[in-house]
Amino acid sequence: MSSQINMSTQKPVNINRHNPALAMILSILFAGLGQLYNKRFVKGIILIIVEVSFILTLGNFINYGLWGIRTLGTIPVVDHSIFLMIYGLISIIILAFAITLYIFNVIDAKRTAEKIRRGAKIPGFKESLRNTWDKGFPYIFVTPGLIMLLFIVVLPILFTVSLAFTNYNLYNSPPRKLLDWVGLENFHKLLTIGVWKETFLSVFTWTIVWTIVATTLQIALGLFLALLVNDPRIKFKRLIRTVLILPWAVPAFVTILIFAAMFNDKFGTINRNLLSIFHLNIAWLQDPFWTKIALIMIQTWLGFPFVFALFTGVLQSISKDWYEAADVDGGSRLQKFRFITMPHIFYATAPLLIMQYAGNFNNFNIIYLFNQGGPAVRGQNGAGGTDILISWVYNLTFNINQYNMAAAVSIILGIIVCAFAFFQFRRTRSFKEEGNI
Amino acid sequence: MKKVLSLVLALVLVMGVLAACGPKRDTEATADKPKETKKTEDVAKPDKLVVWVNNEDKQKQALQDIFDKYTEKTGIKVEAVPMDMLDQVKTLALDGPAGKGPDLFFQPHDRIGSIVLQGLADPVDLGDAKSDYVDTAIDAVTYDGKTYGAPLVVETYGTFYNKDLVDKAPETMDELMEIAKNQTDASKDKYGFLMEAANFYFSYPFFAANGGYVFKKDNGTYDVNDIGLNNDGAKKGGELIGSWFKNGYIPVEVNPDIMNGLFTKGNTAVVITGPWNIATYKDALGDKLGTATLPKIDGKVPQSFVGVKSWMLSSYSKNKEWATDLMKFVTNQENSLHYFEVAGEMPANKAALEDDKVKSDKLIAAFAEQVKYGEPMPSAPEMQQVWEPINNALSFIAKGQPVDEVLDEAVQTIKDNIASSK
Q: Its family (chain B) (predicted)?
């Protein structure tokens, strides 16, 4: 091996001795040592300074944080488990950054050493700085945003996720008591213990039914009205559109509270003035079935204007030529709708429609404001007949202080919404990059 | 190579986590040590005391007057930080350990249990002043045999009546039922008697009058395993409440808005609710409005739930002696009367509650009287598990389901919940 190199290069001895493995090991031992070995002195010194200052300034904090998140405190009152958990999470995020940089440092040392060994010309400090600036430009500018994102978005999520694995509830809350890690016990409870299991399953079923039925209805109604109003034979389009957008213009919580009053079984205007004509008296707020019907109707009413506006916009953009061509070919009304209108509308709006489903899945406002998740159902614990998962979480957190269980349910919620969004986004064209459609 | 590298680094990280060691502390010094009670005279005066007050204009104003007087008397500044009463506990749990908490905070007594569980408040020594407060109020702020805080305000509910529709307040339950029978005409929206009967807070007296109770109480300690909401007395109370719905005296759909609306329109003769409605009712009915204690059952005024709002001593306070002194000052006769006049809430101070200023206010006087018959809402943290099941049971009773079964189920649920939440 050495003879080959001897023949092909001009400075054989020097190259041979330079060992990438050694550079790598030196860099692992202490950032910058490998670079020094590579004779990249400025870079090496900078890296050494960075690591020393990192250890000096953040070493204690990270040590304390890691200890905190592992033990969640050892002395009640003095240690506050919640604080320790947050310190720990912050430490882990900082550590993740540090480790990423460290890996780059090691890779850099190794690569440079390999280049030296191959005899390639190594750029000087100034030149390499310019290279980094040119190649790394987007990354350098993204980094501050990324750091912000980590602390504003990721940290709270990590915190909730962590809570689900603790025993944090009213009887075990800091500062007086310390929290403990309990692993998957909360999820286990949710799926096996009688009270929790039954309530979870019935709430979960209704949540799914609610999401699918209410959202589909609001989209169907929006679509139907958009098609109607878009028909060339319809006059006063502007007026009709304005009227149809009105439900959207009133804040939802106002509407819901008014509806709650209107649906009152005895004093509400719906039973009293409308249905009494037909000698009907429906228990809108007392019978879980009718409460569900009422909720779905209200949500349809609240939700269709947005879909209507969306579809109206898209309908305008479909070229008339397509329909004329279809007419020439003798396409029927239904065929034109199926092969021209539908694909256009849905390809353009699918992501927004998915957001509608996700929104209703977690539509806390309407459930809570209309009837507080009621009416009560015999044999069901902690959740009423129309509680969806998110309003149940609210109940768990604020009424019975079961923070750990609430966090566990939240995680399940999060996973469902993520999965939902992920698969659907993958399937819609709007999120594919150009050229892959 | 990359894999080996990342493995090595992951190992380093895991080692780091495991090796991370905690701060060195003297465990002995920080363990619970008995707190010595000192007298204020022995302790140096702090420059200022921080008090969290409920964020309500009239209350803030009344308290500011009192705090100014205290500063005049002792030279200690009082910094009043307005914060909604219901947010205070949450905030204190984080601010206290961080050293930003107050010396005193203001809470309804039924949260004492959970506050003590979280270790946020310290017991206080009211000394001789203890006898200055209404017994029910002292009872309310007593938890595990210790006094947590000085009560400022008591609150309970009673009977309101419309003098146009009934000559005098119904004195017994039978009289009230007579009124309900004669004056109720649901088709014309006329009612003899309305209340939120499916809300346990208001329905409790009818359980208690017959021998029902939430938790058995012995010497100021609740036995949370002994729940008396499905004993014979409670069931008798449940039947009584059920009969109002069955006879059509009270519609199932009644809620506070509807009740207030019907009463202020003059369509209802008698309602049972709290003094916070006085202002609204008086605006609508004027002199026709009368108040009284709850109608007697078996010759006795039934026990209503009494709520007490009190000052509590933060366990993070560094000036506990002076903070205690301040809370006693705020709740003394003169100052709680001033608070009553400005903020309109009934004083928990015995002498103040008996004062002419309270008694001459005829509408309030009935509630002041009712407080004597009342009993404090249980402050055990387990009470949190009681409300929902029992309220649900009441709504089932309202719909005509068998009282027996429904109450048994509710008590079982409460027991399950208490067990599963520990």
A: Belongs to the bacterial solute-binding protein 1 family.
